[in-house]
């Protein structure tokens, strides 16, 4: 198998196991990741999904050997294959629990798209990110021009996309594009640290917060205020709020995991 799911109880770890091709994306990986996201959505016990790659590299994106064969396809067929990637990006964004990318080594092309579709991105200090589609006579896909435009200055993004220059993880971190920076080879461990913190928190509340965060960029202020009002009103009547507020008033640490154990 070129991909697998590791069930850790409160988190699902999706491993791209195509190390011989630097974890280039495959249809099998798409299927496995869709399965993991659906399982996370269906289980209140799952508080995060972690994406990682074997062999010290996150993901090299599309397999150029496979892409070379698409020239002979009708354009409609080429669109259909690209849409499969875009459906995966949409599924990550729509997954109700936080999705964490653990980027050891680096990411390229659609691998960068995959990483930045996630809610939290952890990268090792020696990781490099490259969106050098231009060097292959191709244009970016996977939403990378949308996600990076929200993190990077326009002039820098233009250099990355039009010239194909790589960017290092420390520079991305300095620009506020990463959730955490780890020692070399330790991105997955750092991602698990974040997953531990999510697992200790109020899962239903975190799901509601993810919805608010993802809709904020396209919403008007009035629409976002309405969404925040409705989410807060629901939260105030929840068992998680009762536990969190009660713990604050009692000067103790809240135990949100107990609530999940009772489900």
What layout of secondary structure does this protein have?
Elements: E1 3-7, E2 11-16, H1 27-42, E3 48-53, H2 64-67, H3 75-94, E4 99-103, E5 106-108, H4 110-116, E6 120-124, E7 128-130, H5 144-147, H6 154-162, E8 167-168, H7 169-174, E9 180-182, H8 187-199, H9 203-216, H10 221-236, H11 239-250, H12 256-261
Parallel strand pairs: 2-3, 3-4, 4-6, 5-7, 6-9
Antiparallel strand pairs: 1-2, 7-8
Helix pairs in contact: 1-3, 9-10
Task: Give me some keywords for this one.
globular; 263 residues; six-stranded mixed beta sheet; three-stranded mixed beta sheet; single chain; 9 strands; alpha/beta; 12 helices
Task: Describe this protein's structure.
- There is one protein chain.
- The protein is an alpha/beta fold.
- Helix content is 48%, strand content 14%.
- It has helices at 27-42, 64-67, 75-94, 110-116, 144-147, 154-162, 169-174, 187-199, 203-216, 221-236, 239-250, 256-261, and strands at residues 3-7, 11-16, 48-53, 99-103, 106-108, 120-124, 128-130, 167-168, 180-182.
- The strands form two sheets. A six-stranded mixed β-sheet has the order 1-2-3-4-6-9, sandwiched between helices. It has a three-stranded mixed β-sheet with strand order 5-7-8.
- Helix 9 (203-216) runs antiparallel to helix 10.
């Amino acid at each position: 198998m070129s991909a697998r799911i590791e069930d850790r109880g409160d988190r699902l770890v999706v491993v791209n196991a195509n190390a011989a091709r630097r974890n280039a994306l495959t249809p099998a990986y798409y299927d496995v990741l869709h399965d993991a996201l659906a399982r996370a959505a269906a289980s209140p016990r799952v508080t995060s999904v972690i994406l990682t790659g074997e062999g010290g590299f996150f993901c090299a994106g599309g397999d150029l050997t496979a892409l070379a064969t698409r020239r002979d396809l009708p354009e409609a067929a080429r669109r259909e294959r690209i849409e499969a990637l875009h459906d995966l990006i949409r599924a990550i964004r729509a997954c109700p629990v936080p999705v964490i990318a653990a980027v050891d080594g680096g990411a390229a092309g659609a691998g960068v798209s995959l990483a930045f579709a996630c809610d939290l991105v952890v990268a090792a200090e020696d990781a490099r990110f490259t969106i050098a589609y231009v060097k292959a006579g191709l244009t970016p896909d996977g939403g990378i021009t949308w996600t990076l435009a929200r993190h990077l200055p326009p002039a820098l993004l233009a250099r990355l996309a039009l010239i194909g220059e790589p960017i290092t993880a420390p520079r991305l971190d300095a620009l506020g594009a990463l959730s955490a920076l780890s020692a070399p080879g330790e991105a997955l461990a750092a991602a698990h640290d974040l997953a531990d913190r999510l697992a200790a928190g109020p899962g239903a509340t975190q799901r509601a917060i993810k919805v608010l965060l993802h809709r904020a960029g396209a919403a008007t202020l009035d629409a976002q205020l309405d969404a925040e009002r409705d989410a807060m009103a629901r939260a105030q009547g929840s068992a998680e709020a009762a536990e969190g507020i009660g713990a604050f008033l009692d000067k103790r640490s809240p135990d949100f995991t107990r609530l999940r154990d009772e489900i």
